[in-house]
Amino acid sequence: MDRVVIITGAARGIGYGIGQCFAKTGATLVIADVNLEAARKAAAQLDAEGAKQSMGLACDVTNIQQVQAMVDDAIKRYGRIDVLVNNAGICPFIDGMEMSPAVWQKTMDVNVNGAFYCIQAAAKHMIERGKGGRIVSITSLAENVTGPAQVDYAASKAAMRMLTVGMATRLGKHGITCNCVAPGMILTDMTRHYWEQPGPAEMIKTRVPVGRIGTPTDIGHAVVFLASPEAYYISGITLRVDGGHQAVCN
Ligand code: NDP
């Protein structure tokens, strides 16, 4: 068995793409998602792509008991957790002046509180085991830039970044690195409704220097690198994976 990797929100989208990249390395994957059936199906598909003895389990990251059970189940079955990827996230796309407090709270619960519960639970085990570990949080370009319909989302991703950076300062002495990957525009179910319209699709060609929208595995390759043993001296950073989009100044 190679490394044991937990990926939250990995039944589809970017999380699944991250799983595909880890599968190529022969990793054992814990695919955690709110939908148990979808998580199990994804785990089986990823084993067919090279992952080993993966499992899918139900975990809503906003529920601290379910997060602890996810970590306990992984340790019970595999004996260890080497890597945690905080990928579960939501983006309601609602105007900041029309957003209800409930929507704001839900975005914070999933994107910030959920990542906090997962990091604490996984890092406690990594510290006890004494063999280090890797934690990667999927933030967004919105950790730095935003718009009227992403006020909650950007606030949550900025908080997720500083949660991860703060944990990097706390966990480094245990050989645990904590980093963020900030995707640019990636085609998934979260964003498909927008990027498949003719205007936005055309905009990609002019605003993204590499000339195409990103894929979930574009993000996965970066996560696998930050989770690798060779990345041991990288901690507390954000690696932007956006085809150069944020570098364009007009
Ligand atoms: P998707 O909506 O396509 O997939 C998200 C997955 O997370 C779904 O399987 C969803 O389950 C699951 N999920 C949602 N809430 C929870 C929860 N509370 N606990 C566990 N799992 C949950 O999103 P993407 O793949 O596009 O996004 C993945 C991550 O990447 C997010 O953190 C997002 O913010 C970030 N990101 C995405 C970008 C993009 O362009 N797509 C750009 C920048 C960042 P279900 O299907 O049941 O809802």
Task: Write a short abstract of this structure.
The protein has 8 helices and 7 strands, in the order βαβαβαβαβαβαααβ.
Notes on the structure:
The structure is a single chain. The protein is of the alpha/beta class and 250 residues long. It has a single domain, classed as Rossmann fold (3-Layer(aba) Sandwich), CATH 3.40.50.720. 46% of the residues lie in helices and 15% in strands. It contains 8 helices and 7 strands, in the order E-H-E-H-E-H-E-H-E-H-E-H-H-H-E. Strand 2, helix 2 and strand 3 form a beta-alpha-beta unit. The longest helix has 29 residues. The model has no long low-confidence stretch (mean pLDDT 97). Bound molecules: NADPH dihydro-nicotinamide-adenine-dinucleotide phosphate (NDP). NADPH dihydro-nicotinamide-adenine-dinucleotide phosphate binds next to helix 1 and helix 4.
H/E series, N to C? Answer: EHEHEHEHEHEHHHE
User: Could you give a short account of the major beta sheet?
Assistant: 7 strands, parallel
User: Regarding CATH, which class?
Assistant: Alpha Beta
CATH architecture classification:
3-Layer(aba) Sandwich
Unreliable spans are none
Helix content: 40-55%
With strands numbered from the N-terminus, the spatial order across the biggest sheet is 3-2-1-4-5-6-7
Counted beta strands:
7
Bound molecules: NADPH dihydro-nicotinamide-adenine-dinucleotide phosphate
Give the C-alpha Rg.
Answer: 17 Å
Q: Strand percentage, roughly?
A: 5-15%
CATH homolog superfamily: NAD(P)-binding Rossmann-like Domain
Number of helices: 8
